[in-house]
């Protein structure tokens, strides 16, 4: 039983070690489904498999909610107000080197964007 607990601990540590390094700032310039060009700045903080931070855009800053990191994949939610209504925006993506490939879903709309790591 003790060996099993040690093995489980080692596997859990290995999974955390293999997680992509997503912490820091990432900038995306993208085209929305209605053809407008926009930009967003993502500031990520990682604690184990938990992802927190903010998304900054011309609409202001919004906190990341329900953020998760699993290996090189991330997911999170941002809630914004549009026309007096709260809209839930779902982000799901994969870290590939210094790029973050994201799929953004809100309502019945969806689009892809690529964010690049900001080096300061």
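^ Assign residues to that structure.
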């Amino acid at each position: 039983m003790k060996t099993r607990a040690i093995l489980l601990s080692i596997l859990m540590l290995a999974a955390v070690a293999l997680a992509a390094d997503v912490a820091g700032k990432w900038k995306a310039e993208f085209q929305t489904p209605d053809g407008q060009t926009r930009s967003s700045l993502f500031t990520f903080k990682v604690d184990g498999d938990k992802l927190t931070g903010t998304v900054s855009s011309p609409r202001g800053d919004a906190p990341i909610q329900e953020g998760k990191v699993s290996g090189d994949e991330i997911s999170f939610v941002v809630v914004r107000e549009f026309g007096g209504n709260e809209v839930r925006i779902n982000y799901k993506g994969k870290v590939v080197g210094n790029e973050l490939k994201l799929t953004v879903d809100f309502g019945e709309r969806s689009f892809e964007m690529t964010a690049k790591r900001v080096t300061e």
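The two ends are 48 Å apart (CA to CA).
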